[in-house]
């Protein structure tokens, strides 16, 4: 275990991911956690993240210098580097020389940390203060034109740091520097592999659920619920039942992916509820986006709970006393809600009508320690179909919020056809993993004039919205090659009779959101 101490600048999650990419398990802890508490977790190393620009700023977060003298290897990055310098008697000064963005660094004496790195390379910086003198016992390894001490190490005490951000993509050789610290200086073993994750989780789930418990899992067609279900299935076999609510708002082929391909790959016991008509009835006449979301959410819970009551009622009739609800909660959600990383034992406030009163509910969250990219790798490890594992994010309300206007069966069919063509062409061009998401939106209440063959048409426009993003919080419109755009446009207008115009959304987020509603 490596602890990443978060000084509150959003770098901690990225650092934790990079540590795991170096095959070492890591968790994030807040800087306000007392050092004794960190040490009690027996970390193999501690990493201090970046943070606000100055260690001298009023209210700047700090950490007790005990962290440097406990005998645990420590690595400081950016702000963490300055904290280490100051905490051990070095000098950090307002030199007035700031460095932001890409910066050239010169390796003056590589030592262990910067071994085999080019003498000159580019790193990502973001700092106002500079370390002007390293603490006693440290070797200075690198400098920039304005920062005399840009990296240092003390191999005896196993302490090291860099002024830059090795975790960001724009830093050359960043991963190598981190690995030198973890593997060579701190001596961490490389045990965080997908095989180990799966085995560990299976053992954990078996302990939690016991030999008699029954579990239920809602499948959405997305990667998280699919991987969560697949792990639990490996752990408890037929005592897991998956429920799939087909609300009719999925894209072409996605219901089949769940009902046929997922079942074939995992052998889960699947309970499908065809609720298409129910959702259409509930959505009739509604065009307000928030209203649509509310209706879809409400109907979903009702349908799911009815199915749940049926499945678990049957288990209870066979004598089950405890029931488990599987959820695909990911590590970023856990960190953001301030929780620890152990399996949650919170009793879910489940109020499903029709269940025996003495049946208790507990949550099972097998992905609680994982990042999204790790979930995909675990999915591959479990043999899930690539279409599910590599699926782009898709909103819960589905195509319901990609039809601008009222949702009807005819409109859903039009949008499904247009969307399927756009996705097919994206895949054919080999761009699936470069594009974060590509909503296709039907402007159902808009008509425009066109001409096809000898005839005038009066059809609907669709908008395609390809975006690149890291986390959906911000996004940029993707510069798809013109020939790909041309194929999408030609095929949609030829093959989907009701659509006579294809438009491209070239708005970043902000100001636009990714979805249109
Ligand atoms: P926006 O449109 O806000 O979307 O830029 C950000 C990300 O969230 C997805 N999204 C939703 N997901 N329920 C969901 O489960 C929703 O109501 C919803 N609205 C947007 C969107 O697809 C994108 O990935």
Automatic annotation (TrEMBL):
Gene Ontology molecular function, alphabetical: ATP binding; GMP synthase activity
Superkingdom, natural source: Bacteria
GO cellular component: a single term: cytosol
UniProt-annotated binding residues for ATP: 220-226
Entry coiled-coil feature ranges: none
Pathway: Purine metabolism; GMP biosynthesis; GMP from XMP (L-Gln route): step 1/1
Annotated catalysed reactions: XMP + L-glutamine + ATP + H2O = GMP + L-glutamate + AMP + diphosphate + 2 H(+)
Species per Swiss-Prot/TrEMBL record: Nocardioides guangzhouensis
Subunit record text: Homodimer.
Known role: Catalyzes the synthesis of GMP from XMP.
Active site: 78 (nucleophile), 165, 167
Segments forming domain GMPS ATP-PPase: 192-391
SUPFAM superfamilies: Adenine nucleotide alpha hydrolases-like, Class I glutamine amidotransferase-like, GMP synthetase C-terminal dimerisation domain
Assigned EC number: 6.3.5.2
UniProt keyword list: ATP-binding, Glutamine amidotransferase, GMP biosynthesis, Ligase, Nucleotide-binding, Purine biosynthesis
Protein name: GMP synthase [glutamine-hydrolyzing]
């Amino acid at each position: 275990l490596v602890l990443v101490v978060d000084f509150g600048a959003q770098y901690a999650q990225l650092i934790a991911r990079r540590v795991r990419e170096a095959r070492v398990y890591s968790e994030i802890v807040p800087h306000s956690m007392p050092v004794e508490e960190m040490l009690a977790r027996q970390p193999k190393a501690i990493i201090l993240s970046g943070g606000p620009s100055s260690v001298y700023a009023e209210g700047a977060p700090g950490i007790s210098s005990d962290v440097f003298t406990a005998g645990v290897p420590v690595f400081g990055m950016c702000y963490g580097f300055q904290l280490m310098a100051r905490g051990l008697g070095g000098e950090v000064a307002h030199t007035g020389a700031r460095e932001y963005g890409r910066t050239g660094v010169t390796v003056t004496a590589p030592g262990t940390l910067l071994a085999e790195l080019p003498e000159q390379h580019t790193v990502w910086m973001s700092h106002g203060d500079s370390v002007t003198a390293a603490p006693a016992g440290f070797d200075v390894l690198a400098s920039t034109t304005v920062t005399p001490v840009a990296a240092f190490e003390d191999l005896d005490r196993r302490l090291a740091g860099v002024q830059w951000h090795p975790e960001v993509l724009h830093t050359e050789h960043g991963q190598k520097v981190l690995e030198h610290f973890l593997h060579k200086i701190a001596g961490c073993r490389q045990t965080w592999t997908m095989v180990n994750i799966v085995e560990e989780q299976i053992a954990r789930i078996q302990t939690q659920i016991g030999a008699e418990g029954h579990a239920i899992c809602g499948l959405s067609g997305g990667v998280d619920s699919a991987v969560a279900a697949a792990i639990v299935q490996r752990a408890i076999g037929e005592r897991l039942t998956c429920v799939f609510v087909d609300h009719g708002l999925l894209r072409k082929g996605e219901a089949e992916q769940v009902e046929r391909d997922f079942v074939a790959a995992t052998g889960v016991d699947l309970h499908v509820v065809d609720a298409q008509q129910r959702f259409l009835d509930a959505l009739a006449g509604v065009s307000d986006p928030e209203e649509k979301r509310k209706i879809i959410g409400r109907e979903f819970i009702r349908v799911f709970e009815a199915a749940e009551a049926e499945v678990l009622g049957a288990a209870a009739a066979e004598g089950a006393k405890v029931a488990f609800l599987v959820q695909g909660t990911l590590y970023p959600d856990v960190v953001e809600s301030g929780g620890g990383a152990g399996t949650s034992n919170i009793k879910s406030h489940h109020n499903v009508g029709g269940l025996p009163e003495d049946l208790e509910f507990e949550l099972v969250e097998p992905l609680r320690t994982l990042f999204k990219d790790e979930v995909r790798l675990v999915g591959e490890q479990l043999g899930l179909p690539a279409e599910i594992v590599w699926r782009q994010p898709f909103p819960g309300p589905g195509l319901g919020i990609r039809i601008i206007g009222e949702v009807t069966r005819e409109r859903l069919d039009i949008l499904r056809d247009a969307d399927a063509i756009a996705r097919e062409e994206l895949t054919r061009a080999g761009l699936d993993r470069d594009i974060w998401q590509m909503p296709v939106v039907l402007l159902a209440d808009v008509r425009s004039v066109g001409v096809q063959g000898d005839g005038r048409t009066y059809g609907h426009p669709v908008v395609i919205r390809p975006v690149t993003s890291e986390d959906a919080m911000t996004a940029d419109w993707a510069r798809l090659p013109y020939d790909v755009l041309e194929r999408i446009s030609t095929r949609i207008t030829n093959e989907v009779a009701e659509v006579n115009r294809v438009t491209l959304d070239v708005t970043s987020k902000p100001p636009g959101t990714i979805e249109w509603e």
